[in-house]
Every structure is written in structure tokens, then in C-alpha cells.
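Self-study notes.
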Amino acid sequence: MPANVAPHSRRVPPRSTVANGLSGDATVDDKTKAPYLLRALKFAVQHGASDLHFHCGLPLMARAMGKLMTFQGHKALTPAAAEKAIAQVLTDEQWERLAMDGEVDFPLELSSVGRFRANAYRQHRGPDIVFRILPSEPPTLEELGLPASLARLVDYRTGLILCTGPAGCGKSTTLAALLNVVVRSRKEHVLTIENPVEFVYRVGESVVTQRQVGAHTKSFARGLRAALREDPDVIAITELRDRETMSLALTAAETGHLVLGTLHTSNAGQTIGRIINAFPAEEQGQIRATLSESLRAVVSQRLVPRADGQGRAVALEILIANTAVMNLIREEREYQVASVMVTGKGQGMVVLDDSLAELVQSGAIDKAQAKRFAENKERFK
């Protein structure tokens, strides 16, 4: 095998050959002649789904109100038919990337349907693809059910603001809402580095430059390094996924930029530890010092099923990096951050369990659901 070919890459026919093959199969609607996936996406959008799941060998599924549900009357596609359906929505370059790497991220915009973030990949049954359905416009804090007080976080002109939580909790959407506050209210240069571009900022006071990893820059780190020479005021990074990106984000925050980013972590203390532990032991002292000076806030969130079954409610944990928090970071005592948050309510700090308790008290969620997400489960017996 040539040195430049990945061990798991596979030879596949040209995308156009696959996309136009298998005449008479279920990948095309007999009445509209529309590709099967495009028809399914339109149906999912019309019925308020958040994601569309297309798994080889299984019926079509969509996620609505946090639950994955099977489309009624849809049969599972064979691997060959699934491959054709996927080929119909990929470009030639994306098709080659899927063959080489086994997966590919890409955006999809359909003028009559909507915008989507997608990931196509191969698994043991054959090819799959999952779509995240994106709103046509960037969200506002009010539309997301988030407190208006969060807008104060972007009053900072420099520093690092992180939106965290597990996969699928809406952290990138919260980041977009915070960025939307900046775009609509400040005459500045906002630069985003995304994979892929999710929300398109068309209206506002700011000049917005949106770069997509793969299409416009090779990596988050490379795009962020270039951003420091592109005169941005605000930089948004959809995922701080490696040490180099984290280091550059800290440098940008330290040198006069407001940096917003997301991390897959469960709470504020874990977020601080995740950043520090990404670096070798000999560098961690300097990283602690830099982070203590640069960090402004951490917003950690969960999406909790509502008691009435109508969607999900947002439970928040908010850390504001005050003097006490800065000292804990420098002194390797980030495990005590939760205690500072309890005493820092007057400064806008919120503990996750308090947010869950408020949702229970208001009737938005029940105790059983609160207990699932709580740090102290005994509180919700």
C-alpha cells in the first residue's frame, strides 16, 4: 500500500456513477423525481426535527424533542442504495474524502428546504449520514430560552468565554446566540473558524468573516494562527479540540481579542482542568497563569426533557472568573470552583443543581429528570 494512502481507505467508483446508478430503487421519489435524502430532509424540517438519521440497513429516523423516532412506512435501504443516496448530496471532493478517511463533515444548503450540518461516514453495515437541521437565521438568547443576562458576557473586549457541555446539548447554538449579540450591536470585525459553517450572519453592525475548516483553511489551529494577522476584534472557534488550538486561543485572548469557543466538558471545574491537562507538565504552570488572566466565563449547559413532553428546557451552570476563581486556577485548586460559584450568585454565577431546582419549581421539568442531570442527586429524591 502506498505510504500516502490511509489503511482504511477504499477504492470507490466516481461519485457521478454511483449517484446515477440503481435506476428504479428507493433513492428517488417516483412522483417528484427528487433524491430520497432531499425529500426526507424537507419532511424533517416541516415536522420540527432537530436531526435526520440515515443508517444503512435501518429505517429512516429523526430526532424530535430529544427523542429518536423511526419514520413510519419507510423501509431500510440496502448498502448500494444507501451509497447512491449519499452520493447524491456530496460533491466530488467530499466523496473522495469519505473514501479516503471514512468520514466527512460538510454543510448543505437547499434554497427551498433549509441549511444543514452533516457528517457522512462508513460503518460495518455500510455508509451512513446524519444531518443537523440549522435555523435559517442565527438564534437570539430569547429564542433559546436563555437569560438575557448572558448578553453581559460579551461586554468584555478581551479574554476567553467558553460554552461547554456534552455532545448535543446546544453549546454551539448558545455560542452563536452570544456572537449574534456582538454582530448586531458592535461595529467590529468578527471572525469565525468552524467545521462546518453553521449559522450565517447576514444582518448586523459588524463585519463578519466566516471560515470553514477544509474549504477555507486546513485546520482550526492554522485558521486561528492566520486570524491573528487579519485584524479581528472577536474570534469564535466552534471547537477547541487540540493543544495547539487551545494555546493559540489563549494567546489571542491574552493579546487583546475576545475569543469564544466550545469544549466537550461537563462543568466549569472540568473545563479548566481539560485545558490545563492538554499541555505537558512542564508547561502547565505558565498555562495556569495565562488562563487565570484570560478566562472571563464558562457557560455549561444541559437540555432536559420538559415535563409536558413538548421539547427540552435549558439548565445552565455559569462561572464568572472573578479574583477568587483566578487564584484557584493559579494555585491548582480548580476542584474548589463549585464552592466559589455557590457564594458568587450576586455576581451572576449559577450552579447547575440550582438551575435544575428552579426548573422543577416552575414545573418545566420533573424531579426524575432533574435527578438524571444533577451533580448532587440526593437533592432531587
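Second protein, same conventions, sequence then structure:
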Amino acid sequence: MAAEALGIIKPEDSARRLERTLDGLEHTDRFRGLFLDSLDPHGGARLKTAPGSGKPIPPSLSAVDNGWLATALIMIGNTRPKLRARTDALLKTMDFHLFYDPFEPSDPIKHTGQLHGSYAIKDGALGALNGLVNTEQRIASYVGIARGQLPAEHYYRIGRTLRPEQHAQRQERQGEYRTYHGVRVFEGHITYRGMRIVPSWGGSMFEALMVTLFVPEDQWAPRSWGINHPLYVRAQIEHGLIEARYGFWGFSPACRPDGGYRTYGVDALGADPNGYTSNESDVRSGSGARSGMFAGGVVTPHAAFLALRFAPREAMDNLRALEDRFPIYGPYGFHDSVNVSTGRVANCVLALDQGMIMAAIANALADDVMQHAFSDGAVETAIRPLIAPEEFTAGDSSVSSAKREPR
């Protein structure tokens, strides 16, 4: 869809590719309309054993993965009338209530009224809660609410930070309680370099901003997301250029330059007590920045593309600098990451990251075409009035820019 909007492929080519994708989806194994985690690519049946090892794979479902798939189906149905019947047929059976644990006032710790990240088909066990609204899992919440499968107040039962009594989070939380839709919400934040920010789980860019490729949260909720998203981007920039002094920025899970896959982020922006670090040496933010202990920083281009909406000049400058300094741009676009200390570039591209790059470019050059494809209509009707009243405690409490450390 993005390639067609940008004129890279013709409409008939786009239609052919979308039809082939739907052909595949219609012939894959599902459970209550939801798509399983592991599928055999040769026929779409559930993959029962791991290739190579033969180790059994228990059948399971992912709320996040199904949330993104449903997002794509909604986009196709909204913009391709000839395919609407097929996407509606797939969406109709996708039951996001399966991941939902209704709120129980008598036991609010165990039954929180939130979505769980996974569902085990064998015994019906729900997986762990992500627990924070500033993660990609909220796309599943938006889809479930817009389709009438989840109560609207569910959105306000998701934590903004961990509550003060939850001591696992490393950073000190501050904030205040406010009430929306009858739900008492702790509007908390962490503070990083003078910025009050609602954190993501691990401090990565895609957790915080992937949803914005399809939902104009900053416009719909100007006193919450409209404040937090630009600050989150600025914090990533300042970590890369000022605190760690890498000379580059953009930290998010990616293929490692040395092979494999790793979660990267600015751990000061994450609630996870273990944190995602921005480098290979696993040194935490806030220590050793001036003694070179942040060596080994790994930057991924898709993180800069995600920031394009909120810091376009800085994002383009960063991408140009990466291309000028490292052999990171090839026939398939940007390689997935680079260790900016050693200069080693990952010898791969990741489909997910390329998708985020394409969607970000399409929004920037084709009038937010990806956002409109998903959000116009039923999603806006359900979600915009729901999130509009919220007011985060996020903001900039730093000293004047003249007194801030220069970049």
C-alpha cells in the first residue's frame, strides 16, 4: 500500500500482491479467528515442531501480532472496496476478547482489566501483562475497542508507569491520580535530562512510536500523546548525541551487527527493571557517559524514520550522517543496524523494520496516507473521544535551552 502511494509500484501490482497475501491468510490455521504464532510457510498449517531441532512448539496466539495483522486488514478494507468482503470475513472472526481479563474490584491486582500478551491454546493460559500503555500492544487495544470486543474503559486500566507501590521499576516515578471513564489512573512519569516522560517498557523507539504510523495520537490527544511523543524522540536524540556521545541516535530492537537479534533502547526511558541498553556492552544510562563507557552503541535506521513525524530535520540529518559515515545503504535500502563505535554494519534487513520505514515515508510524502487508511471512520469514532480528555504529567521541566548542554 505504501509503495503504491509513493508511485514505486502500479495499482495493479499492488492489487495483485494484496490478493496473494489474502489468499495465504485465508488458508492458514487459526483459533477463534486469530492467527497462530508458528505456521508452516509451505501450506499455512500450524507448525508443530521446530525445524532442525524437532522440538515441540505449543500452539499459542500473540495479542500484538494479531493486533498488527488486524490493523493491516482494516486498512485494506477501508481503501480497497473490491477486497472489503474478504478482509471483513477475516476480521469478523478475530476475537480480541480472548486476551482480555475483566476487571474485578474484589481482586484488582490479579484481575486488572487489561490485555495479556499471549494465549496458550492447549490450556487456555494467558501470558504476562505488558502493563504499560506506551507500548505497541495498545494497537490491539484500539482494534478491540473499535470493534466492540473490549470495553472502552479498558484503555484507562493500562498503566502509564508502574504505580509507586510497584518497586520493580528502576527509575523513580512521580505523578498524580486522575479519573477518566470512572477509572482512577496514576498519571505517572519518569524524568530524564529535565524531561518528564511516560516511558515505554524497554526504552525503544518502536514500542513508543510504531502505533503513530497508523493512529494520529498526537492530534487526537494533544495533552497526552501530543506532549509525550516529541519528548520521547528528543530524549533518544539527547542520549545518542549528548549523554553517550555516539554522534548518532535511534535505538530500537534490531538485527545485531555481529549476527542474531537484540533489544536496543535507552533504558532510562523504559519501565523494565532490566532495561534495553543502547550498546553491546550493556552499560546503563546515567553512568559512565563521560568516561567512554557507552562504547559499542548500536543505531538502527528504522528508529530515525519513526521519529520523522516529530523531528523531521533531526531525523533526516541523522540518516544522512549514517549513510555518509558507514556502508549502511544497499540495494534493499538501509541495513538493519550499525555499531557506530566499530563501524560494523548488520548484513541483513528485517522485514518488520523495512515495513516501518516504508510506512513512515508514505506518511511523510503522501499526506499521512497510512494513518488515514487505518484511522478514518470507525477507529476515529471510537478512539478519538476516548483518548482526547487525558492529560499526562509529561512535560519539559529543564532549564532554558541556553543553559542546556550543547549538542
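Instructor comment on the second fold: Residues 319 and 329 are 10 Å apart (CA to CA).
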